[in-house]
Amino acid sequence: MRIANLDGRLVLLTGSGALDVADASGGLFGADPQAVYPRWAEFVSWAATASGGAPYDPARLGPPVPAPRQVFAIGMNYHAHAAESGFETPDRPTVFTKFPSCVTGPRGSIPLPPGGDTDWEVELVVVIGATAREVKAEDAWNHVAGLTAGQDLSERIGQLAGPAPQFSLGKSHPGFGPIGPCLVTPDEFDDADDIEVSCYVNGERVQSGRTGDLVFPVAALIAELSATLPLLPGDLIFTGTPEGVGLGRTPPRYLAPGDELVTGVAGVGEMRHRLI
Ligand code: ZN
């Protein structure tokens, strides 16, 4: 199953296009995409009975999770990316947040902070569909609503400044957390633990990886995080980025006004942004 946010309304994506959930369900489910996650199991049952839909303009898609309560992001979760960043591969997940106000949709323009070095990071993003607290890894996927593509845009000067690096602030400028273009349930993937992710700048492929190479796979992340605090329906986990970021290049390369950034997750689709 695939869902999306079309003009701020929850839609089910079918073979025919987009089906407005509030209309098609006779108001059983509301229009707010965020409101579906606390009722995820009920929604999945309803969606299996729904049909219809109409063509839509992908430029009108917003974030499939517009207002998560918690956004977790994982650093150094691919060995080669940890090395290019100058870090050891950690023994436990390195966790920071992208403050929820940075979440935006899969299309449009993103402002570059003045005086910054803004870098790209394609990531698989996990969306929680059932509260997870002290969950074992073998049960973790049962708490996932679906997967989407994300960009963990990062302003490196702010991120790495100070005695304790400011990962959360440097990665939370407005527009720095695009997700989309849709949410796809795990059953739609041949192997939800081995998904290709890729990133292009002005048509040049700068990152290509597979989530099969994650140091801490999705289930391990849910187990680790939920040992400390509850993961809530509609929360996001940015799972980390593979090698190929601008910071790891010689010389470093950062995004510039006018650049086009394309972020892809196989089986989900592509996001397309212009930096301004
Ligand atoms: Zn990242």
Strand and helix layout:
Elements (H helix, E strand, L loop, with lengths): L1 E5 L2 E6 L2 E4 H4 L15 H8 L13 E2 L8 E5 L3 H6 L9 E4 L5 E2 L2 E4 L7 E2 L2 E7 L15 E8 L2 E2 H5 L6 H4 L6 E8 L11 E6 L2 E7 L7 H11 L7 E3 L21 E6 L3 E7 L1
Parallel strand pairs: 5-16, 7-13, 8-18
Antiparallel strand pairs: 1-2, 1-4, 1-13, 2-3, 5-6, 9-12, 10-11, 10-16, 11-13, 14-15, 14-17, 17-18
The structure holds zinc ion (ZN).
The site of zinc ion (ZN) has 7 residues, from loops.
Description of the molecule:
By secondary structure, the chain is α+β, with helices and mostly antiparallel strands. It folds into two domains: 2-56, no CATH class; 62-275, Alpha-Beta Complex (Fumarylacetoacetate hydrolase, domain 2). 14% of the residues lie in helices and 32% in strands. It is built from six helices and 18 strands. The chain has helices spanning 21-24, 40-47, 79-84, 156-160, 167-170, 218-228, and strands at 2-6, 9-14, 17-20, 61-62, 71-75, 94-97, 103-104, 107-110, 118-119, 122-128, 144-151, 154-155, 177-184, 196-201, 204-210, 236-238, 260-265, 269-275. The strands form three sheets. Strands 1, 2, 3, 4, 5, 6, 7, 10, 11, 13 and 16 form an eleven-stranded mixed beta sheet that branches. Strand 2 (9-14) and strand 3 (17-20) form a beta hairpin. It is globular and about 55 Å long. The two termini are 34 Å apart. It binds zinc ion (ZN). Zinc ion binds next to loops.
